[in-house]
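Please predict the structure of the following assembly.
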Amino acid sequence: MTEPHSENLWTAYEAAAATGGALCARGGDAKGWTAEEWAAGGISIDTRTLKPGDIFVALRDARDGHEFLKSAFEAGAAAALVARAPEDAPEGAPLLVVGDTLQGLRDLAVAARRRNFGKRIAVTGSAGKTSTKEILRDILSVSGEVHAADKSFNNHWGVPLTLSRLPMHAEFGVFEIGMNHAGEISPLSGLVRPHAAIVTTVAAAHLEFFNSVEEIAEAKAEIFTGLARGGVAVLPIDNRYYELLKKRAEQAGAAAFVTFGETEAADYQLLDYKSDGAGARLKISINGDVREVTAGIPGRHQAINMLAALAAAEAVGANLDAAINALAGLRPAEGRGARASVMVDQGEATLIDESYNANPVSMAAAIGLLGATPIGAGAKRIAVLGEMLELGPDAPALHAGLAEALLAAKVDRVYVSGELMRHLWDKLPASMRGLFAGSAVGLVGAVEDAVEPGDVVMVKGSNASKVSAVARALKVRGQKES
Ligand SMILES: Nc1ncnc2c1ncn2[C@@H]1O[C@H](COP(=O)(O)OP(=O)(O)OP(=O)(O)O)[C@@H](O)[C@H]1O
Ligand SMILES: [Mg+2]
C-alpha cells in the first residue's frame, strides 16, 4: 500500500483554473465527495501506481484511461481529469472535465511551472539522460529541494506529468527529454522552459526514424528552442556535432554557452580518469581551476556526465563546491551499472548489471568498464550481451563492431542472444565464444554454469532483449546462498 501525500499540490479550483475545465461530480455530490472542495497531493496516469489523494488523469494511450476510473477511485483518487464521464465511474466521483486530457495535463504542467520560482534544467542526448538527471538530483540536493522524476519519463506524457508534479517550493526541477522523431523535443522543452539545457551526446541511437546522425543532432538541438530568457546551453565540445548544436543554441537565443569534455578548450574539462571499476578518481578543470575529485560511480562516460551536470548546476546558481563534494556519494541505479556479489562454489563473483538498456555507445562504454574491473587470479571477465534494438539498417555492422571493444577489454568469454548478435558471434575468436542463444533466457543456465569465484560478469542489452533475466537469475542465486 502506498503512503498518502502529506502536502497538497492542487486544489479543485486551482486545477480548474489551470485547465479551463468544468468541476462536477458524476450524478451529483455523494458519499462525502463534493465536486468543488477536493485537494490533491499528486498526479497519476496509472491506477497501478496511483497514490491515495492523487488526481487521476485519464489519458488515451495504448488504452483509454477512462476505462480505469472505477479502479482509480477504489485506489483513493481525489478526483479525475477526464474528457467524458463514463457510466462506470462511481456515483458522486469528483471530475474535472476538459476537451482533451493530455492537453489538460500540459495545462497543469504550465501552471505548476508558473507558480514555482525555482530553476529548471532540461537534459537530452542519445545516451546519459537519466544518468545525468540522477547526478543532478544528488548534486543539487545539497543546495536545495530538487524535483525530478523517479523514472525516465521523457516523452509526450512523461515530461508534462513530471512538470505537473513540481512542488510549489522546490528550488530545482530536473527534466529528461527524449524523442523518437524530429519535432518531438521542441514542444516539450517549451513546456519546461529550462534555465539550463544540456545535450549529453549525439550518437547513433534510435536511428530507425532518421536518415543520418546529423538529423539526430538537429532533433536534439530542439531543446534550446525552449530556453527561458537568459538561459544557458550546456554543450558536449568533443562531439562531432558540437558546432551544429552551438549554432542552433545561438539561433534559439541562448544567453550563454558552457562546454564540457576532454579537450583543453572545454570549460568543464576531464583531465584524468582512474577507476578500479567500482568508483573513480577524477582530475577536472573548471574554467582553469584544477580539482581532484572522488566519484561514487565509475565510467569515463559517467565522469563526462558529471561535468555536464556540474556545468548546469553552476549555471542555475547551485553551490559548486558542495556539488563537487556530492559526487562521492553517487551510486549507480538498478540496471545501470549497479554491482552485486554472486555466491558461487564457496566463493564470490561480481555482477555488473547494465541490463536496463543499450546502444552502440553505451555498450562500448560498459565493455570498457568490464575491462577496467579487476578480477581474481585465474578468474574470467564474462560479457552477457542481448541485442541492441532500434538501430535501423546498420544494425548488423554495429553488432559485429563490438568484437573490437571486447578484445580490447580482454574479455574472456562472451554469451550472446538474438539474431542480430549472430553478427558479433561470427566475428569472435573461438576461444571467446561462450554460447549463442535465440533468446536471453536460453543463456541463463550456461552463464550460471560458467561463473566461478573471482569472475566478473557484465550483463547488457536493450530493454526488450530481456537480457535482464540473466542478471536476475544471478542475483537470486547470490541471495539464496549468501
Ligand atoms: N555520456 C554517455 N555516453 C555514452 N554512454 C553513456 C553516457 N551516459 C550513460 N551512458 C550509458 O548509456 C546507457 C543508458 O544510460 P541512461 O539511462 O542514462 O541513458 P538515457 O539517455 O536516459 O536512455 P533512454 O533513452 O533509454 O532513456 C547506460 O548503459 C549508461 O552506462
Ligand atoms: Mg532515460
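Residues 329 and 425 are 38 Å apart (CA to CA). The chain has three domains: 10-101, 116-329, 338-481.
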